[in-house]
Design brief:
Shape: globular
GO molecular function: quercetin 2,3-dioxygenase activity
Protein name: Quercetin 2,3-dioxygenase
Number of strands: 12
CATH architecture of one domain: Sandwich
Keywords: Dioxygenase, Oxidoreductase
Enzyme class: oxidoreductase
CATH class of one domain: Mainly Beta
InterPro entries: Cupin_2, QDO-like, RmlC-like_jellyroll, RmlC_Cupin_sf
Distance between the termini: 45 Å
């Protein structure tokens, strides 16, 4: 049995907004959205954690690199549970690194570090956690992408119009860097 709660972000959510209520979510039953070629499932976010961290998964096929971006106030964790994911990171000194992460591998991206990733094998999955002093960004996925009720990857990539990317930094801690070049590719 799945309970549904309305939130300010969606008509129905499987996650209670009240931070004082414990809850359990069955596999895949969080708030889902398609963005690019991926399925993002949010299990906890700002409403549940008093804006201190979020917890989500990203599943996707082998594909293109996700656009370079940074989070000014948020640290991000990448923990691979299936497949392989190539993580690209540039530190504050401009030093770039690239690492292939496979199941059990962990990547940490400090706030203000440009980063990106690419699924290297079909049906790869990353567990993500983001935490920062001021806010979380998990509702970015359904606002830039498309909220979905069903499980599964999108039939076609969900690529937002370029002008929609510009609206993201005002509401969410995500700033895209369309001119960023990875020297490590």
């Amino acid at each position: 049995m799945t309970l549904e709660y309305a939130t300010r972000y969606r008509r129905a959510s499987r996650i209670p907004a009240d931070p004082t209520k414990p809850y359990v979510i069955e596999k895949g039953e969080g708030d889902r959205a398609h963005l690019f070629g991926d399925l993002v499932t949010v299990y906890a976010g700002a409403e549940q954690t008093e804006n201190t961290f979020n917890f989500f998964t990203v599943e996707g096929p082998k594909g293109d690199i996700i656009p370079a971006h940074l989070h000014a106030d948020t640290h991000e964790v990448f923990y691979v549970t299936q497949g392989a994911v190539r993580l690209f990171v540039e530190d504050l000194a401009g030093e770039q690194m690239e690492r292939l992460l496979t199941p059990g591998d962990f990547g940490f991206v400090p706030k203000n570090c440009t980063h990106s990733y690419r699924m290297e094998r079909h049906h790869s999955q990353v567990v993500g956690v983001a935490a920062g002093p001021g806010r979380t960004y998990e509702r970015f996925f359904e606002n830039l992408g498309t909220p979905v009720g069903e499980m599964g990857l999108p039939h076609a990539p969900v690529v937002p119009e370029p002008q929609k990317f510009a609206t993201v930094p005002q509401e969410f801690d995500v700033r895209f860097l369309p001119d960023h070049q990875w020297r490590t590719q």
